[in-house]
Amino acid sequence: MRKLTIDLNNVAHNLDTMRKLVNSSGKQVKVMGVVKADAYGHGMLQVARKIEAEGVDYIGVADLAEAQTLRAAGIKTPILAWLHDPQDDFASAIKHEIDVAVSSQEQLLRVKKAATLAGTPAQIHIKVDTGLSRNGVTIDELEDLLIETKAAVADGLVQTVGIFSHLSSTGVKEDLAQIERFELALAMAAKLGVEFELRHLTASDGTLSYPQAHYDMIRAGIALYGLSPFSDNRAAEFGLKPVMTAEATVVQTKRVQAGEGVSYGYLYRTPKETTLALVPVGYAEGLPRNASGKAEVCINNKFYKILSRIAMDQFVVDVGDASVSPGDRVVIFGDCGPSADDLASAADTINYEIVTRIGSRFNREFIG
What we know:
alpha/beta; TIM Barrel; Lyase, Ornithine Decarboxylase, Chain A, domain 1; 9-stranded parallel beta sheet; 11 helices; elongated
């Protein structure tokens, strides 16, 4: 009844597009492919295997559980995990050769203890908060952390692989201020004699906007999945190809008279005798309820608005007098239908949320 088609060949295309973008002037900038949150809903293991085969330099995940899942599946590419629970087992991360982001002296202390137990130095990236005010050490506390890190390096407990931050994407003025703070952090590290192999700041949006901030590596997240990080631009403008198509089948049609209320709350009443088509996708599958009355789907190459209320498991489309029957294909987004951007706009959200919230009742089919 419900199917997600994931085109891994398009993942490879998008990786290559980002790689060419950051190395267009002859630079040697590495690319991290971010596969957190089940690869933004696209299938973490399948995407990771594909980008590893395509020679991605690094893989990024949010937490150690995701990283360890990748290692257990045989992924050998360097992995960075950056969001840690206070009880996370850093010794296991060291054992599985997972790079750990360090955002505080408390985290560094725990990493050092784990390295002592493991008898192997931890690979770390210092996370700096340059203005997003989320994860990361503030500029005011960075010097103390760098001093402690330098001592840990001397003790053979850590190896400083990287230093990084993340832009807020609030606006050009704010982003440039964050780049300036990152430069300050780099200067502070250099002054203290703490060396890093990789400096990385930009995710998809920053990579497309600020060539001067590519440094040694960029992080490709939403762009890897062929979606634009900007609400005012479509992915095709950057040479990216959408990876996911969400579809279902019509499970029932019925002929009704004028004036019939449709779905909860009768948000829509039929203006004339018409055919209603029932589609087994609802907010449990990730179709936002607040897109009711605004989102469109494609049935038999024709677009129809979901005029009635989207329910948990289903929605109803008024197809008029069109020839629509049970078993006909309904494209929710992707392929020949509306895009994830279109659905995001109808739901007053962003394409990131559309693809990551897709429910488990969809059967997934991988191409390539």
